[in-house]
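ugh finaly. both done.
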Amino acid sequence: MSRRVIWRSELKLTVSASLPAWVNVLPDEDYQHSFGLKAGSAEKFFARTDRHDELLAQRRHWLRNNPEHCAALLPGAEPLLEETIALGRQWNSLPTRFVFPDGNAFARCLALGEAWEPDYVLLKQDAATGRFHLVGGCVCFPSSWRFEEKVGQPLEVIHTPVPHLNEQLASPIHNFLSRLKPGVAWCRANWGLSRSPELNQHPARGLPKLTPPLREDEVWLRVEDQALVALPESRGVLFGIRMTVIPLAEVKRHPAAVRGLARALRTMPDAMLEYKSLLAAKENLLTLLEHDLAVSF
């Protein structure tokens, strides 16, 4: 483990007159597992943003100092990686004149991880069983999970820690991935809460947990935008992940987000609250959300 580095630039926010996109991940509905996919643009998802230099600096740091925690490429995954690189060039999402190292597939995997803003995961369908396995990728900004423990595992095993997810969505997820067509990115989003603004929340870093008592300035919303893209030539799937971190004070500026988040916390089963590390902090979080707000829940 390298020396600890704390990144604070996640706190920079651009406030516009319209609602920010992340508000949509907190609908005013009871909590439930939802696949919730919408057709989108892979070119747009993987495009550079105004945070490009900042994000790539962080990605280079983690990939060069802790590659064992955030990068892998199993034997047989090389065709998926090469097809992904070809798509990246087609989408113009790679830096101009970017040169990948020759020969060493893992070095090319790392290079793509340093060139793209989003994390990426490669899923390959087993010809015998039809199950999708995680066979490679670069995940620099995990939300309290260990990428290195998921490598080589089928999706059903990867999803086992999530309460009731497999029993409710394993078949729909498998069927969808099996029928995924090229030319479109299928997008969805997840959310979580954290006591740190750090993008990289790998458990090995030992970042603070949501243990009461909590102040408003100690809580951040993490929104994970995801994109699924077919890799038809290699019988695989590219899974892209973008992380956005929003201070709770900013969340509270949007009543719709407050309503959605509070309702989700109130209706989320205890097992799911425990999985998201929210059970002990639930009442404290609700108090923070409702304090000084004229919002009816």
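ok and the 2nd:
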Amino acid sequence: MTNTVTQVHLQKPARPCADFPKSQPLRKTRIVKKLATFVAGLLVSVTAYASGGGDLLQSGTDLSDRASLQRGAQLYMNYCSGCHSLKYLRYSRMAEDLGLTEDEVMNNLNFTGAKFGEQIQVNLTAEHANQWFGKMPPDLSLITRVRGSDWVYTYLNQFYLDETRPLGWNNKLFPNASMPNPLWELQGLQHAEYGEKDKATGERPVHGLKVEQAGKLDEAGFRTATRDITAFLEYAGEPAALKRQSLGVWVILFLALFTFLAYLLKTEYWRDVEH
């Protein structure tokens, strides 16, 4: 007996302790933690990509404000449509949604000679775009859906003069942007206020912006103008949003009426039921 007991104590385990299966609750907890960490990291990455860095200004756009959308359309066509198309929006659809006549659109908002039912394109050729900007300016139909309205609004407000850039302009939100400030005559000439030089990169970060030469609009007027442009681009990204908003009111009223009728029906059914 003694020898047998000794033999059992001296026997090595058939498999290392690390090979024994772990408890299921612990394993599930670790899996959940890993998934949560992955999702959190993904959300942070997407947010950082969409924002382009920096603090965003609140655009305060209102798609129910038709006057704002009309002003935004006029500003966009006058200052942006020379380079940036809206290929997913037609002149006819814009006129219908914004309460404009065909003559108003064709005489005041169409500078390419396109027909009323055609998409909003540009006359800028790829050859000229490569010579002037190094590439073809992007279509802006979906810019607010990709970047967000606050990003677009902030971007339009944060151009500043920078002699080190090929076109003489830079942007605080999107450094080294490859386009000049299209609204400079409205905003004026804005200069950057730099902080102390970063020891690691050797660069001086932009801490603030200041208009040193006034434009046609004061600060409040320019903010309104860029808000209108942003609202128009938000509409262009999803024209159906206007009809969906107006339809939503009727849907809510219908649901409220249906709920009231359902309550009356329930009361009638249960009236004769003994409790």
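summary for the 2nd one i guess: Residues 55-241 form a domain with the Cytochrome Bc1 Complex; Chain D, domain 2 fold (CATH 1.10.760.10).
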